């Protein structure tokens, strides 16, 4: 209730809605604080298989890493999971692993034909 001077609350000390003061505080949440979502299993697997594909099995693992990386990146872009950076790392390492495998097979084929 406002008095004649236009001051909200009058003598009882209350303020009118929208007047000066602090706004409503958001409720305290529980659990994981806001921010980036946790990485998905696909993104992590893509990165790990990309690393192993460069070191151990240079034909099969990079292909799997590339496929998982593309899938995980699409999921992260839609907001269904995190780990976009890991997915991109898997895509890059998978692509490099495939390129090395193709280069190695090409060099081996050229050398084999040079001996004939």
Automatic annotation (TrEMBL):
Q: Which domain of life is it from?
A: Bacteria
What organism, scientifically named, is this protein from?
A: Streptomyces gelaticus
Q: Which residues cross the membrane?
A: 47-70, 91-114
Q: Where is the DUF4190 domain?
A: 43-103
Protein name per the record? DUF4190 domain-containing protein
Arranged from A to Z, the UniProt key words for this protein are: Membrane, Transmembrane, Transmembrane helix
Which residue intervals are annotated with compositional bias (Gly residues) in the record? 7-22
Chain intervals for the UniProt region annotation (Disordered)? 1-36
